[in-house]
Amino acid sequence: MSEIAGHPGATAVVNESYSFACMRCGHGWEQSYEIEHHVDGDGREFVQYWVDGRVVPSPLSRPSCENCDHHVVRIMRPGRVASARDAAHRGQPAPAAGPVQAPAGGGEASAQEHHWHLADLLHVFQRKAG
Question: 12: which strand partners?
Fold first, then answer.
């Protein structure tokens, strides 16, 4: 297996983004990860998640809220927090949730981090009194 330039020991590198919402405090955010695939000395595969040049725990194993450090966190496909916030500001229903998918490409725009609160996201799901 060959290494990826700029990623010593990595056999593959992918970029993935996720949206998160804390079910305790309502904090919402999005984060992009650079995921390096490696093979250890015994031939076992493993991955390392990187954010801003630092190795971080997998967001899929036991995510914690960056606001209250609670572990009841909803993980969604990228853009869910932003689309719910935008829909709330336009007074339209938010798009339906779906499975987590890695975005095509990546780049600097996808690495930007956004923060919102769950109350802002849930506003679009509340029925209007008629």
Answer: 37
